[in-house]
Amino acid sequence: MAGFSRDLGIDLGTIYTRIAEGSHILVEEPTIVAIDVADQKMVAVGKEARDMLGRVPDSIEVARPLEHGVIADYEITETLLRVLLQRVSGAIRIFRPNVMVSVPYGVTSVERRAVHEAVLQAGSRDAYLIQQPLAAALGVDLPINSPSGNMVVCLGGGSIQAAVIAMYGVVSAETLRQGGNQFDEAIVSYIRRKYGVILSTVTAEQLKIKIGAAVSQDTEQSMEVQGQDQVTGLPHPVTITTGEIVEALQEPLKQVTETCRRVLEKTPPELVSDIIDRGMALTGGGALLRGIDKLLTKTLGIPAYLVDNPLTCVAEGAARALPMYPLLRRNLPTV
Ligand SMILES: Nc1ncnc2c1ncn2[C@@H]1O[C@H](COP(=O)(O)OP(=O)(O)OP(=O)(O)O)[C@@H](O)[C@H]1O
Ligand SMILES: [Mg+2]
């Protein structure tokens, strides 16, 4: 890693892109870009672009360039990364940074190459890839240098990844191309079935975050939201309770527990017994869902716990991985 260069870790997420240097988060922006349709020039990125969602004329397109943790629109991803990297390191090209960027576990070589190329084209000197759960494990300081088992679950907006890590590498893992976005969709369809009212996914996400939970709570909360009557098309307010959100989320939550179960099933028993002792670390925005730790603990019989830095651990871990490259190298994804 050449002398003058800075080492940056990037978590290129479906919902958020985060850039870290050491343990400092330098950038945290929604993975969204607004483009002028006529000349394809960028109008805004990040929060500024998110504020334009659903509020702009046809001449501007507001796009989310990632789906399920992988690049869906290459050009827009590259534009976003270029703007964010310039914000961090200035426009002077001699100080181009070394970048370690996370990719979901198990993505195809075409998908990996797209991320690698986008990071290089966006202005980095060297670009390396790391599996998201491995970066998360480094970011939460799990002892991955030892021959003992560590389990991490990444609950993102577009993907869910569960992995067992030992000796600097992934031993067994699974990726589900479904995440918090699908939780929001499950809430939308539950409310439509029950009340004949259509909510936006933005409103569904607010319900999930403000009053939602994975298991029944002792104190029920409720919240009034505005929807649209399925028949008349007119505005129609509904009051939703915590219990209803718990019910709406049962199916996607089952997918989460099944994914963890499949990973445990293919993990050597020696490592599983370490995980029973140490517990499994829950990371990503979805780990903030009330009671998801309890649900996993109860269903799998293994203690699950929320980490201190669930949103930033992947970017922090990716940044930490750069100076450890010689140790990690043989276990990192190839391009
Ligand atoms: N308190 C909360 N309760 C439940 N879900 C939450 C909460 N806070 C955030 N989320 C969800 O977390 C998701 C975003 O998490 P995160 O930033 O980890 O995703 P990402 O890294 O961009 O996605 P991915 O890793 O899948 O590419 C969203 O779906 C959001 O609704
Ligand atoms: Mg993520």
Characterise the protein shown here.
The protein is α+β, with helices and mostly antiparallel strands and 335 residues long. The chain folds into 2 domains: 7-134 and 315-331, Nucleotidyltransferase, domain 5 (2-Layer Sandwich), CATH 3.30.420.40; 143-307, Nucleotidyltransferase, domain 5, CATH 3.30.420. 37% of the residues lie in helices and 27% in strands. It has 12 helices and 18 strands. The strands form 5 sheets. The protein has a 5-stranded mixed beta sheet with strand order 3-2-1-9-10, sandwiched between helices. Strands 13-12-11-17-18 form a 5-stranded mixed beta sheet, with helices on both faces. Helix 10 links the parallel strand 17 (280-283) and strand 18 (304-306). The structure holds adenosine-5'-triphosphate (ATP) and magnesium ion. Adenosine-5'-triphosphate is lined by residues 13-16, 69, 156-159, 179-181, 205, 208-209, 284-286, 288-289, 311.
